[in-house]
Amino acid sequence: MTNHNEKGKPMFISAARYYDRNLKDAQNLKAQPALIEAPDCEQEAGVIIWGRKDIRGLMPTAEALRLALEIVAALDAHKAKA
Fold it and tell me: How far is residue 71's CA from residue 1's CA, in Å, rounded to a whole number?
């Protein structure tokens, strides 16, 4: 049986061999406020996602909110199956 997400698409399944790495990577993710400088030198509010030593993502606040809501929806999908 294949697990599906709320849109009916197959759910991503990580291989067991990556379990420890996935946990360590997740523990190192941090989100902080950021400013994004536009080509016209104006600064826009944003969010930076840090890994252990590197930037994993930088986005304007609207995109950060979209991503946060997608994370909540993913968590809710797991609760619904429980």
Answer: 24
